[in-house]
Design goal:
- By secondary structure, the protein is an all-alpha fold.
- The protein has a domain of 75 residues.
- The chain has three helices and no strands.
- The N and C termini lie far apart (72 Å).
- The protein binds iron/sulfur cluster.
- The site of iron/sulfur cluster has 14 residues, from helix 1 and helix 2.
Length: 113
């Protein structure tokens, strides 16, 4: 029995990836990575990029990807790098508050026992 070639084309079926439905498909990647981080031209570039995101059916998947893989640059899911950094900062603060509250509740439970 002949073994398949290790160079045979990969024809395995795969689930559709969210990026295939992106509103920015076919657009220049540079559109979503404006050079620099401040100044009027960059701000208008960011606004232009965000217009794609506003009508994108996979916006939440795109943002989740950027947050999961810590994409530090560019517009992802309708948010620029500063907005995503703020989201991450707020999430960390909330996690810190939750851990502190849990620690205090455990300490109270031990003290009451
Ligand atoms: S949310 Fe924006 S950057 Fe992400 S896939 Fe959609 S259009 Fe592209």
């Amino acid at each position: 029995m002949a073994r398949p070639s290790r160079y045979a084309p990969d024809t395995l079926p795969r689930p559709r990836h969210w990026s295939q439905d992106a509103a920015c498909a076919g657009e220049l990647t540079a559109t979503f990575f404006p050079a620099g981080t401040t100044g009027t031209p960059v701000e208008s570039d960011v606004r232009y990029a965000k217009k794609f995101c506003a009508r994108c059916p996979v916006r939440s998947q795109c943002l989740a990807h950027a947050l999961t893989f810590r994409e530090d640059y560019g517009v992802w899911g309708g948010l620029d790098e500063d907005e995503r950094a703020e989201m991450i900062r707020q999430a960390r603060l909330a996690a810190d508050r939750r851990r502190r509250r849990e620690r205090e509740e455990r300490a109270r439970a031990v003290a009451a026992a």
